[in-house]
Amino acid sequence: MLALKIELKRQQMIHYAKEYGFTASQTVKCSQELDVLLNKQSQQQLHLLENQNKYSFAQ
């Protein structure tokens, strides 16, 4: 679900960049929203790795 949101936001940002330019407010705002989604994905992946490490050491 998150991966899909990221891809849709990325496509939207590319559209805005082509339509309005890289520094347009719409593009920048969309880029910031994409950053939030990517950070959320990184956090989820980090938690998964941390949990895997906990269980591998416990065995």
Observed structural traits:
elongated, mainly alpha, 2 helices, 59 residues
Summary, kept brief:
The protein contains 2 helices and no strands. It is mostly helical and 59 residues long.
Biggest β-sheet: count, sense, barrel? Answer: none
- Nearest-integer average pLDDT: 93
Question: Which spans have pLDDT < 50 for at least 5 consecutive residues?
Answer: none
Q: In total, how many beta strands?
A: 0
Query: Total helix count?
Result: 2
Commentary on this structure:
- 90% of the residues lie in helices and 0% in strands.
- The protein contains 2 helices and no strands.
- It has helices at residues 2-20, 25-58.
- With 59 residues, the chain is mostly helical.
- The model has no long low-confidence stretch (mean pLDDT 93).
- The protein is elongated and about 50 Å long.
Write the layout of secondary structure elements.
Layout: H1 2-20, H2 25-58
